[in-house]
Design goal:
The complex is a heterodimer of chains A (151) and B (756). Chain A is built from 5 helices and 5 strands; from the N terminus they run E-E-H-E-E-E-H-H-H-H. Chain A is an alpha+beta fold. In chain A, helix 2 crosses helix 5. Chain B has 18 helices and 29 strands. Classes of the chains: A alpha+beta (151), B alpha+beta (756).
Chain lengths: 151, 756
């Protein structure tokens, strides 16, 4: 029997190569390119996805370690055709510039709001502290997440 | 802002949802049938002769299609000095320089094969700093320099790729008459662009040998021209298309990996994607110019600034690239936004065996403004004056001339300072506040726009301007919509593509809103005039009696009755009379330059630059006396943008620029350990994160620029520039210590506090 994981609600086979990372699986095999390869060593945060609801680095996670787990990528958040409030708030607050960090920021915010629906500003800052943004200075991102939570 | 319908509104960026949902396509997200993957082999030496390259083992690996080396790239290139090659030939000049590139079936295979290429080097002595490079009998970075074509052909000393002087008035006599003179040497570091998306390109050649290059770039036209030059092909055989760009900041201004991807695609006859790893990007690409700035400023007892002199040495790294222009601009702007009559600015750029320095948000300005704005505070301290007040006394105003003689048409600097003063809190114990100003330009060279009215009366706008994330697409569409009286959703902004877009020099120089906006205004105005021509015939009136009405309708001014729509007009034009309605315009920035009657200039690498833009910032800091750590709690940033076409986008540029300025001031520094970059990773090179950010308070000032679209001018670069001196001035205000070396690390703060 092949080991499997679930990606965005659909079962999926693990890659044959044991060295494949979750990011390789998502981007190269499943063509889910919302998760980005900004550094490939776990610092920039652009590859972040939800693994069993927890924010995780897809570039540092072996695909094989996700057997039996459920992975959610940014592509799942508007699968019903309607963007997540976080996505709408980010756009409206002017928090999206080059956009390379944005999908992972969306997921970091989603993980936060799922666990803590009414976060303080400091909790929002802490939740995105592992995601680098080189364009915005973060303020608009923090405002957008607060708006999604409280608005 | 009732004056306009679309201009002045914070419309959400056009591609915002596309990016937030993860659907935006960056180069690394693109694929093509039969795609191959590229990888680069980097030099392990700072300076060495390449004795031989053995590619046999790499080529023998199944799935490897081709390996290229320097021999495959015979043409030199370079905007100011033709000293560059796409791959090292005969010599390597920095650790990380690309030596070979190959294409293989998978990225992993490509990297594995690159490791099998054997290069036999004969190491040569290297020069790692300008001091070493400029020492007598130093090893030459470019032994063949005398044979290179150069745009500014003045005689230069060894290991110098550019030298410029600008002077006005009589500096020595002026200093002799000054009541207060301050003098010091300031040092700034190598900041890395650290765009989040590493450089990448995907190239594909057709059967006739025309190659299409999708890439992360600041200008599809510079890519087209430079790839053509490197490959020795006519430009008509190169098509460059912009993918989504994950940040650039000047680092993707010149070509990055496009020539390598194009050559691989032509050789293999397969599409090839070459995306750098973060390691490759750090080691191969670019930094801001490290600088040593000696500066001297003199004032009268009444606070009037009268003289400034500076000597600037920039570390250009191994290749000249845009260094000549960076130097020229730094010297032009080094006077600062003050009425100083006597100036003498001298500078040179040294070649060293480090990765090349290049344009980076600010373009030479942050280095000289750090020195200049620190000196304004040093003078204020000597005179017992309030630093903000001293700036107000000397600030340039509209109608003044800049160095060289260009008139400042619009100037909100005094307003920026007054707004800042009104916003600042009263002094609090343990907190210091420092102020700094910035002057910059918005403009440069040429651009063009095409506005096409489609059959249904909606519009496609083509400009060739690549949006790097700042939101230029949205701003330009807003300008087009406003000019035509259309809602924003009727404007389609075309992807920049050299096959279809009209020429645009680049997204850089804080120029797109101002320069491309001018072209869009003119092109949309021409389309409107042509719509009116049809409407006049259809409504049987004079074109001069017509007016635009909201939503793409035309009527007779003052007559509520008959009205026709853009759809009616465009249908007539397409199917019956006259042909499709197209407006187009070309613009060039033609003001400025140096008036030889007032300025003595040698070795100048810059031309006519642009409209002047101004700003002033204040930083509030606390200093931990035990650790030496500076914490910035609030930063007020007042910037004159002429008119804010999109206030949210302007605030975004201010906040983002301040964040990069904060990194420059406090953290970012690519250090070298001998010949090797010591911290070329995101683990060891600190980019500010969310937890390091102060509260940023943007203050938008609007003094309309007469030549700008709806009065607008640029904001891309200025917000980064005054951050470091504002923080250094705040530390001086708090503790009386003057820090003259960036970044302002805890070690340097502690050392200064110990000395005090």
């Amino acid at each position: 029997m092949t080991a499997r994981l679930t990606v965005n609600g659909r079962p999926c086979d693990l890659p044959e190569q044991g060295t494949a990372t979750l990011l390789d699986l998502l981007r190269d095999q499943l063509m889910l390119t919302g998760a980005k390869r900004g550094c490939n060593y776990g610092v920039c945060g652009t590859c972040s996805v939800l693994i069993d609801g927890m924010l995780g680095r897809a570039c540092l996670t072996l695909a094989a370690d996700c057997a039996g787990r459920s992975v959610t990528t940014v592509e799942a958040l508007d699968a019903d055709g309607s963007p997540d409030p976080i996505q709408r708030c980010l756009v409206e607050a002017g928090a999206v510039q080059c956009g390379f960090c944005t999908p992972a920021m969306v997921l970091a915010a989603r993980a936060l709001l799922d666990a803590n629906p009414r976060p303080s500003r400091a909790e929002i800052v802490a939740a995105i502290s592992g995601n680098i943004c080189r364009c915005s200075g973060y303020g608009a991102i923090v405002e957008a997440i607060a708006a999604a939570a409280h608005g | 802002m009732a004056e306009f319908a679309v201009v002045g509104s914070s419309a959400p960026r056009l591609d915002g949802l596309e990016k937030a949902t993860g659907r935006a396509v960056y180069v690394d997200d693109m694929t093509r049938p039969g795609l191959l993957h590229g990888a680069v082999l980097r030099s392990a030496y700072a300076h060495a002769r390449i004795v031989a390259i053995d590619t046999a083992a790499a080529l023998a690996l199944p799935g490897v299609h081709c390996v290229l080396t320097g021999e495959d790239f015979p043409h030199r290139y370079g905007a100011f000095v033709q000293d560059e090659v796409a791959l090292a030939r005969d010599r390597v000049r920095y650790v990380g320089e690309p030596v070979a590139v190959l294409a293989a079936e998978t990225p992993a295979l490509a990297r594995q094969a690159a490791a099998l290429i054997a290069v036999d080097y004969e190491e040569l002595p290297a020069v790692m700093t300008p001091e070493e490079a400029l020492a007598p009998d130093a090893p030459l970075v470019h032994a063949d320099f005398a044979g290179y074509a150069r745009r500014v052909a003045v005689p230069l000393p060894p290991n110098v790729c550019a030298a410029t002087t600008i002077s006005e008035g009589d500096v020595d006599a002026a200093f002799a008459g000054c009541d207060v003179v301050v003098e010091g040497t300031y040092r700034t570091q190598a900041q890395v662009h650290c765009y989040l998306e590493p450089c990448g390109a995907l190239a594909e050649a057709d059967a006739a040998g025309k190659v299409t290059i999708w890439s992360s770039c600041q200008s599809v036209f510079r890519v087209q021209a430079t790839v053509a030059e490197i490959l020795g092909l006519p430009m008509a055989r190169i098509r460059a298309v912009a993918a989504k760009v994950g940040g650039a900041f000047g680092g993707k201004s010149d070509v990055t990996v496009q020539p390598l991807a194009a050559a691989l695609a032509l050789r293999t006859r397969r599409p090839v994607r070459l995306v750098l790893t973060r390691d490759d990007d750090f080691m191969m690409m670019r930094t801001r110019h490290p600088a040593t700035v000696w500066m001297k400023t003199g004032a009268m007892a009444d606070g009037r600034l009268v003289a400034r002199a500076a000597r600037l040495t920039l570390d250009g790294g191994a290749y000249a690239e845009d260094s000549s222009a960076v130097l020229g601009f730094a010297l032009l702007i080094a006077r600062g936004p003050y009425r100083i009559e006597h100036v003498r600015m001298e500078g040179r750029v040294a070649y060293t065996n480090r990765l090349r320095a290049a344009g980076f948000r600010g373009y030479g300005n942050p280095q000289v403004t750090f020195a200049g704005e620190c000196q304004i505070d040093e003078i204020a301290a000597r005179l017992g004056r309030d630093p903000l007040d001293l700036r107000l006394q000397n600030a340039v105003r509209a109608g003044d001339d800049w160095v060289g003689g260009q008139r400042i048409e619009a100037c909100g600097l005094v307003d920026c300072l007054e707004r800042l003063r009104a916003a600042l809190p009263p002094a609090a114990p343990g907190r210091g506040i420092g102020v700094a100003c910035v002057a910059h330009i918005s403009g440069i060279l040429s651009t063009s726009a095409i506005v096409r009215v489609l059959e249904d009366g909606t519009v496609t706008l083509s400009t060739g301007a690549v949006d790097l994330g700042e939101g230029a697409d949205t701003v330009l569409a807003q300008i087009c919509a406003e000019t035509l009286g259309l809602p924003l959703d009727r404007i389609n902004y075309a992807v920049p593509d050299t096959d279809g877009s009209p020429y645009n020099w680049s997204t850089g120089g804080s120029r797109v809103t101002y320069m491309v906006g001018r072209a869009v205004t003119a092109a949309a105005g021409q389309a409107r005039d042509r719509l009116f021509g049809h409407a006049a015939e259809m409504l049987e009136c004079a074109a001069g009696d017509l007016e635009l009405r909201p939503g793409g309708r035309v009527g007779i001014a003052g007559v509520p009755g008959p009205e026709i729509t853009f759809r009616d007009i465009s249908a007539r034009a397409h199917w019956a009379v006259g042909g499709p309605i197209i407006g187009s315009a070309s613009v060039m920035f033609e003001g400025g330059g140096f008036d030889p009657k007032r300025s003595a200039v040698t070795g100048n690498g810059i031309g006519k630059l642009g409209a002047f833009v101004f700003g002033a910032q204040a930083a509030e800091v606390e200093v931990d006396a035990v650790t030496g750590r500076i914490a910035v709690s609030r930063l007020w940033a007042a910037h004159d943008v002429g008119r804010a076409i999109n206030p949210t986008a302007v605030a975004g540029q201010i906040a983002g620029g301040v964040a990069q300025g904060l990194g420059y001031a406090l953290y970012e520094d690519l250090r070298f350990d001998g010949p090797n970059p010591a911290n070329p990773t995101l683990m060891d090179y600190k980019v500010p994160g969310a937890t390091e950010m102060p509260e940023i308070i943007p203050i938008i000032v609007e003094h309309p620029e007469p030549s700008g679209p709806f009065g607008a001018k640029g904001i891309g670069e200025p917000p980064l520039v005054p951050v470091a001196p504002a923080i250094a001035n705040a530390v001086a205000a708090l503790h009386g210590v003057r820090l003259r070396t960036l970044p302002l690390t805890p070690e340097r703060v502690l050392a200064a506090l110990d000395e005090a």
